[in-house]
TrEMBL record:
PROSITE patterns: ABC_TRANSPORTER_1, ABC_TRANSPORTER_2. It comes from Effrenium voratum. Keywords: ATP-binding, Membrane, Nucleotide-binding, Transmembrane, Transmembrane helix, Transport. This is ABC transporter domain-containing protein. InterPro entries: AAA+_ATPase, ABC2_TM, ABC_transporter-like_ATP-bd, ABC_transporter-like_CS, ABCG_dom, ABCG_transporters, P-loop_NTPase. Residues 1-56 are annotated as: Disordered.
C-alpha cells in the first residue's frame, strides 16, 4: 500500500499540481511499499535506468555515503532501514576493518565514474536522475505561511521589503527563488534558513513542526559573499566544512575523506585547482568565479536535509553556472534533499533544471507565481501573455513583472495570482503546516543508522553542533597552525622586526653594562616600553581573521571558543618567541651580567603578555583597524604615561597615585630594577631605587599584571561573542 498523507508518506500517484511544489513521479522517492520490500528488491527496481546508482555492489559505497552525507531514506511512517543484505557486501565490505583495507585507487576510480555518469544524465526532464534507494536520506519538508519583512524609515513608518507569502516544498525539490532586484529573494531565503537577525513576521515549519535547535544541523546555508582564509587550499576548505558538519564512522580514514572531497570538487569543476590557494588581493589564488564554486561545494558537502543558496551562480560563466545547477539537481534527485536557491535571471538551459519556481515582483516583493517550473509557461499563457517563440521564458517573465519598465504587467499578474493560484497555495499550506512527519532528532538518528553499517559511530547529541568540542578544537587548531606555517611572509616579518628592534635598541645602549646605574635604569625603561608596545602589530591580523570566524560561527561549524583558544595560543607562542629574540639581542649588546638575564626576560615577557591582552581586546571590539587605533589610545596613555620612570612614585601628584598603581608598566619596571639591584648589589642602582621611590611589592605587581591579562581577555571573549556578528 502506498503511504498516505495522514501518516507522513508521499502518495505514490500524486498528480502534479500547477500551483504547488512538484509531486514525485515513480522515481522521486521510495514509497512505504518500496521500503517494506527487501533491499535487494529495491535495488532491482532502481537499477532500470542507471547501474551507476547501485553502489552496494562495490566497496565505494562508503565514499558515496560520505559524498552525500548520507542519512536515512526512510519516510515518516517507515520502520528503520533494514540492514544491508550480506550478498551485497560480502566480497569487500563486511566489517569496519575491511573498509580500511580497501584499495583506495579502486574505490576512487569506481565512484568517480559513477558520479560522472550521474551528472551526464542530468537533463531537467522528469526521471532524469534515479533515486538511490539505499543511500537517499532526505526527508524534510519545508512549509512557510505569511512570511513578511519590513524596515523602519526615518519618518516613523515602515517600508515593506517582502509582502506576506506562503509556500510548501517537498523533499527532493530544486527550488528557484527569482525576481528583479529589490524583490526580497535573499530576504525570503534568510528567513526560511533562520538566518534573519532582524525581526520578521510569519511562520516557518519543518516537517510540520517549528524549527528547533537542531535545525542548523539539518540545513546548510551558502552565502553570497565568499569570505575565506586566503592561504587555505580549495580541497582543505571543503574538507574542513565536511569534517565539522558531519560525523563519520571511526574506521573512515582521512584518505577516504579526501577522495570523497575530490568527487565533490570534480562535480563543480574544481578538481584541477583543488590544491591551489583560495587567494586574496595580496595572495595569488583561484579566480572569483572559482571561489563562488568553492562556497557552493562547502555548503553542499555538509550532508544537510535542506540547502539554502544565495545567488550560487553569481560571477560564474554560463557554462560553469549550468554545471553547478546540474550538480545541485543531482543531489536533489539522487539523495532526496531539498535545495532552495535565490537566483537572479538564469538562462533557459539552467532554468529547466529547477523543479519549482517562486517568482516575486519588487517594491514590495510579492508573489507572482508559485508552482512547477515546467508549468510556468502555460501559466503565463493562461494569464494572457504567452511566451513568444525564440524568447527565453525566464527573461520574458522578468520583463513583464519588473515594476517601472515599459512592458511591465506586474499589477495584472498580481491580480491573476490572487484570483487563481493563491487560494490553492493557502489550502496546501494549511494542510501541510502542522502535518507532523519525522522529527529533527529522528532524521539525525536515521542518518546515523545508515553510517553505522560501515563502522562504529558516536551517538547523536541534541546540540546545534554536529561534532563535539574536542573535534572542533582539533580541526580549528590544525587549520590555524597550517595558516601560521604558510604565512611565511608574516613569520619572516615578525622575525625581521624583532631583530631590527633588537639591533636598533642595542646600538643605542651598546655596552650600557659598563656605565653608571642611572643610564642602566634608562635602558631598562626603554626595554620594558618596547616590549609593551611590540604586540600592536598583531591587531590587523586579528581584525582581518575575525570576519571569517564570524561567518563560520554563524554557520555553526564550531564554537567560537575553539577559534579563541587556537588563535590566542599559536599567535601568543610566536609573539613570545619573537619578543624573547628581541630581548636576547639587546641583552647581548648591552654587556650586562648574565646572572640577571632571567630576571630581565621574565619581567619583559610578563609585560608583553599583559599588554597583548589589551591589543586583542581592542581588535575584538573595534570595527576596523582605524577604529582600533582610536580605541587603543586611552589604555596606552594610562600604561605609558604612568610608567614608573618619567612619572614615578617620587614625582606623581597624590591624586594620581592610583594611576601609577594601576599601570602594568610601572609595576614591571619597578620590580625588575629592584630585583636586579638585589642580585648585583649595585650601589648606583640603590641610589636609583631610593631616588624614584621604588618598593618591592611582588604581590601587587603580579596582581596588576594578572588583572590586566584576565580582564582584557574576558573583554576580548565577550566582544568576539557579542559584537560584529553577521547581520542579515
Amino acid at each position: 500500500m502506498p503511504a498516505s498523507p495522514k501518516d507522513g508518506g508521499i502518495p505514490a500517484e500524486s498528480p502534479r499540481n500547477v500551483f504547488s511544489s512538484p509531486c514525485r513521479d515513480e522515481h522521486a522517492a521510495p514509497t512505504s511499499g518500496d521500503m517494506n520490500l527487501p533491499t535487494s528488491a529495491m535495488a532491482s527496481k532502481a537499477s532500470g535506468a542507471s547501474k551507476g546508482s547501485d553502489l552496494h555492489a562495490s566497496p565505494s559505497i562508503m565514499h558515496a555515503a560520505l559524498r552525500s552525507g548520507a542519512k536515512s531514506s526512510s519516510l515518516p511512517a517507515v520502520p528503520p532501514v533494514p540492514p544491508v543484505p550480506p550478498m551485497a557486501v560480502s566480497s569487500t565490505i563486511t566489517t569496519a576493518s575491511t573498509i580500511s583495507d580497501c584499495t583506495i585507487g579502486a574505490l576512487y576510480g569506481y565512484v568517480v565514474g559513477s558520479v560522472c555518469q550521474d551528472i551526464e544524465q542530468v537533463t531537467g526532464e522528469p526521471g532524469d536522475v534515479q533515486l538511490d534507494g539505499k543511500l537517499a536520506y532526505g526527508n524534510a519538508a519545508l512549509t512557510f505561511k505569511d512570511v513578511s519583512f519590513s524596515l523602519p524609515t526615518s519618518h516613523g513608518d515602515s517600508n515593506t521589503i517582502l509582502a506576506p507569502c506562503s509556500g510548501h516544498f517537498e523533499p527532493g525539490t530544486l527550488v528557484a527563488l527569482m525576481g528583479p532586484s529589490g524583490s526580497g529573494k535573499t530576504t525570503l531565503l534568510d528567513i526560511l534558513a533562520a538566518k534573519k537577525t532582524s525581526p520578521y513576521s510569519g511562520t516557518v515549519h519543518m516537517n510540520g513542526r517549528p524549527r528547533d535547535c537542531l535545525f542548523p544541523r539539518l540545513t546548510s546555508y551558502v552565502p553570497q559573499d565568499d569570505i575565506m582564509f586566503p592561504t587555505v587550499t580549495v580541497k582543505e576548505q571543503v574538507m574542513f566544512h565536511t569534517a565539522l558538519k558531519t560525523e563519520v564512522p571511526y574506521a573512515v580514514s582521512r584518505t577516504m575523506m579526501a577522495n570523497a572531497t575530490e568527487l565533490r570538487l570534480r562535480a563543480v569543476g574544481l578538481e584541477e585547482v583543488q590544491d591551489a590557494y583560495i587567494g586574496s588581493d595580496v595572495v595569488r589564488g583561484i579566480s572569483g568565479g572559482q571561489r563562488r564554486r568553492v562556497s557552493l561545494a562547502c555548503g553542499l558537502a555538509t550532508g544537510a536535509q535542506i540547502f539554502f543558496c544565495d545567488e550560487p551562480t553569481s560571477g560564474l560563466s554560463a557554462t560553469d553556472a549550468e554545471q553547478c545547477v546540474r550538480y545541485m539537481r543531482l543531489l536533489c534527485k539522487k539523495y532526496h534533499v531539498t535545495i532552495i536557491a535565490a537566483i537572479h535571471q538564469p538562462r533557459q538551459e539552467v532554468a529547466v533544471l529547477f523543479d519549482h519556481l517562486l517568482l516575486l515582483t519588487a517594491n514590495p516583493g510579492e508573489v507572482i507565481y508559485n508552482g512547477p517550473m515546467v508549468q510556468a509557461t502555460q501559466y503565463w499563457c493562461d494569464a494572457g501573455f504567452p511566451v513568444p517563440d525564440l524568447v527565453s521564458p525566464t527573461d520574458y517573465f522578468l520583463d513583464l513583472i519588473t515594476p517601472g519598465t515599459v512592458d511591465s504587467q506586474a499589477d495584472h499578474f498580481l491580480s491573476f495570482y490572487r484570483d487563481t493560484a493563491k487560494p490553492v497555495i493557502v489550502r496546501l499550506v494549511d494542510a501541510e503546516l502542522h502535518r507532523e512527519r519525522r522529527t529533527a532528532m529522528e532524521l539525525l538518528e536515521d542518518r546515523r543508522r545508515i553510517l553505522c553499517r560501515f563502522g562504529e559511530m558516536p551517538p547523536v547529541r541534541r546540540s546545534i553542533y554536529a561534532v563535539r568540542f574536542r573535534k572542533q578544537l582539533q580541526k580549528v587548531f590544525c587549520r590555524q597552525l597550517r595558516l601560521l606555517i604558510r604565512d611565511q611572509q608574516g613569520i619572516l616579518t615578525n622575525v625581521v622586526v624583532a631583530v631590527a628592534q633588537g639591533l636598533l635598541v642595542g646600538a643605542a645602549y651598546i655596552g650600557i653594562g659598563n656605565h653608571a646605574g642611572y643610564n642602566q635604569a634608562g635602558f631598562f625603561f626603554m626595554l620594558v616600553m618596547t616590549c609593551a608596545l611590540s604586540g600592536i602589530k598583531v591587531m590587523p591580523k586579528a581584525i582581518s581573521e575575525r570576519s571569517v570566524m564570524k561567518l563560520e560561527v554563524s554557520e555553526v561549524l564550531y564554537n567560537d571558543w575553539a577559534y579563541i583558544i587556537s588563535f590566542t595560543t599559536l599567535n601568543g607562542i610566536v609573539s613570545l618567541l619573537c619578543n624573547a629574540l628581541f630581548v636576547l639581542i639587546v641583552f647581548l649588546m648591552s654587556q650586562l651580567r648574565w646572572e640577571i638575564f632571567g630576571t630581565v626576560l621574565l619581567w619583559n615577557s610578563a609585560i608583553f603578555i599583559a599588554m597583548d591582552s589589551v591589543y586583542m581586546f581592542v581588535a575584538a571590539a573595534a570595527k576596523d583597524s582605524s577604529a582600533a587605533q582610536i580605541l587603543l589610545v586611552p589604555f596606552l596613555m594610562l600604561a605609558m604615561i604612568f610608567n614608573g620612570f618619567t612619572v614615578s612614585r617620587a614625582s606623581v601628584p597624590d591624586f594620581m597615585v592610583w594611576a601609577l598603581e594601576m599601570s602594568p608598566v610601572s609595576h614591571t619596571l619597578e620590580e625588575m630594577v629592584y630585583s636586579i639591584q638585589k642580585q648585583t648589589e649595585s650601589i648606583e642602582l640603590m641610589i636609583i631605587v631610593d631616588q624614584f621611590g621604588y618598593q618591592s611589592s611582588l604581590g601587587a605587581a603580579v596582581g596588576v599584571l594578572g588583572a590586566w591579562f584576565v580582564l582584557f581577555r574576558i573583554g576580548q571573549i565577550v566582544c568576539l561573542k557579542a559584537m560584529h556578528n553577521i547581520k542579515r
